[in-house]
Write the structure tokens for this entry.
Amino acid sequence: MTGSLRVVGLGPGPAAWLTPEASQALALASDIVGYHAYLARLNGAPGQTLHGSDNGDELTRARLALGLAAQGAAVAVVSGGDPGVFAMAAAVFEAIEAGPTAWRLLDVCVLPGVTAMLAAAARLGAPLGNDFCALNLSDNLKPWATIEKRLTHAAQADFVIALYNPASKARPAQVHQAFELLRRHRSGQCVVAFARAVGRPGEELVVTSLEQADPALADMQTLVLIGASSTRCIERPGGKKWVYSPRRLEPAP
Amino acid sequence: MTGSLRVVGLGPGPAAWLTPEASQALALASDIVGYHAYLARLNGAPGQTLHGSDNGDELTRARLALGLAAQGAAVAVVSGGDPGVFAMAAAVFEAIEAGPTAWRLLDVCVLPGVTAMLAAAARLGAPLGNDFCALNLSDNLKPWATIEKRLTHAAQADFVIALYNPASKARPAQVHQAFELLRRHRSGQCVVAFARAVGRPGEELVVTSLEQADPALADMQTLVLIGASSTRCIERPGGKKWVYSPRRLEPAP
């Protein structure tokens, strides 16, 4: 088989956050497979075929990409952010494992990118400067009980918590439940940030406290960051405050 | 004040993983501050001053960078990977908070990058395809008891765990203690990967199980990944196996 599959992360939005490796893979692809909103970001090269599809159904998209590669095409399948974080890479390997043995011989590479929490953190300051976790709040593919268990441990461990996919039109209530749970385990003074559409039109940052936070601020384009007990704000005369998590932690009292 | 400070992530190594934003900031800087091994990766531009220093003492480096920016210089301070993850960004904000009020007026931006765990994950397949945490195993700046507590919660939450700074010449024993702790909470069949120097000379990947893993494989250049119970390997005829964490999780029995 001479085809290839590159699983490419486009980063959170602007071309300035797309790695040269990803740019090159996109330029060399004969076929690009992805959610149509991601394909709309690309400048297709002459002779390239774009295979756009709706959001969701990552497995169908992965199978399409693998099938094209197995036929000899140079395929790129794209994700926003990093393809390995709650995105297309896992779907591709699920499809390979369940698919024809021949797919295991394919030349498949995952090309890393800047994931949403890194971009959001950079805009805010350095909230991920100490231990953190990343949790996908969607229960489309896992039980809500698993999410609650993980959230509870994350809160008790005093991790900084990055919540991906905090809410959607179909799941408006869960981010409220998540905040209720967090408020039982963390101080009301804990720093919370809503980072919406970072790097894209409509970018908005809200820095608040767990006590004051309105979970309704979170939508499909929002990354929610819950600070650890050590996470701090730096006030700035006339400017937006910075949020950071110091590297040094004192022993618990 | 007309100076500026850009906190720049170089990515794990190769230029192909350096974002265009970071490249541009490095090209425009009058002064670049960083650990000399990172500065050695750069092609300095004419007229640029490189301020190299030994590893450690990030706070001194941050103060140097802030002082130069306050004097009007266009400063870039560099980290490997992403500057917000266990790297220079937190040190810069610590220095600002403790420093002269004037530093709060400076034009400071953090530019995100590809952090080590994303690069390691991409090489392995998609081990971060489900919920995960990132834990800095160094106790230089935090109590070992805090690390043990976080590791225990992470293991109980069934997060995929990325261990940064698992070992150094001064701390050879802690990664062994961490594995002992993990073995008490996780099945011996749990997938473990040692990803050494990903993207740099000497890159090496070892995929094994928690039972079989030799913690002595971890050094300063290694990122250790501990899979969740759901993390799987795909065997490939004649090839390296892929590691991935499926997006779908079944309810606990």
Summary: Chain A touches chain B through 83 residues (CB under 8 Å). The first helix of chain A runs from residue 20 to 28.
